[in-house]
Design a protein that fits this description.
The chain has 183 residues and is an alpha+beta fold. It folds into two domains: 86 residues, 3-Layer(aba) Sandwich (Rossmann fold), CATH 3.40.50; 77 residues, no CATH class. It is built from six helices and six strands; from the N terminus they run H-E-H-E-H-E-E-H-H-H-E-E. The protein has a four-stranded antiparallel sheet with strand order 3-4-6-5, with no helix packed on it. Strands 1-2 form a two-stranded parallel sheet. Helix 1 runs parallel beside helix 2. The longest helix has 18 residues. Bound molecules: iron/sulfur cluster. The site of iron/sulfur cluster has 12 residues, from loops.
């Protein structure tokens, strides 16, 4: 309890008597009580205020350092991903499109490019999300059977991108991308 910043009196409280940040701390305390080596953190900061987010991330990073933990950290927040992540995988339409170290510094897949752009152009995030929703609808309506799932939004698309699934290309030992452009 102390490790995650909770007090003894929190032990006797029901979940509805805890704040969002306290709930997350309780969940982390419960997870580390089993002395795991690996923890899946699924959107651990998504419902929290920015200041509480920062304290939860600090707790997770300290625990990682002190207990030699590995995390699979799932998030929609790229800034949080950049702080926590060492190795990244970008997913779209149920597939990993790009994977590796430092992919935010030099994105290879057009979807990763778009996501990185959304960090620097915050006002466009809504527009990008609208585009992505529209794209999913277009894909469902289209004849894209087995072609690239990102075809309708991709500025680089070509004929072959609709003919078959793009292969996963190993660009170097730390980078993989699912796209015809890298063959
Ligand atoms: S495979 Fe083609 S459509 Fe898909 S991301 Fe690459 S260039 Fe774009």
């Amino acid at each position: 309890m102390r490790t995650v910043g909770l007090k003894k009196e929190h032990l006797n409280r029901y979940p509805h008597e805890l704040s969002g940040g306290e709930l997350q701390r309780a969940v982390i305390a419960r997870a580390i009580s089993l002395k795991p080596k690996f923890i899946v953190c699924d959107e651990p900061t998504s419902m929290l205020d920015v200041s509480v987010q920062a304290s939860i991330i600090n707790i997770l990073l300290n625990l990682q350092k002190n207990h030699n933990l590995s995390y699979l950290f799932i998030t929609h927040d790229l800034e949080v991903a950049n702080i926590v992540g060492q190795r990244f995988a970008v997913m779209y339409g149920g597939q990993i499109l790009e994977e590796g170290n430092k992919i935010m510094d030099k994105p290879l897949h057009p979807y990763t490019e778009l996501l990185v752009k959304s960090i620097t152009m915050k006002e466009d995030i809504e527009h990008i999300n609208e585009l992505l929703d529209k794209t999913e609808i277009e894909i469902k309506k289209s004849n894209n059977n087995g072609g690239c799932k990102y075809y309708h939004l991709c500025p680089y698309h070509g004929e072959k991108c609709l003919k078959g699934a793009p292969p996963v290309v190993e660009v170097d030992e730390n980078r993989k991308v699912r796209c015809f452009r890298y063959i």
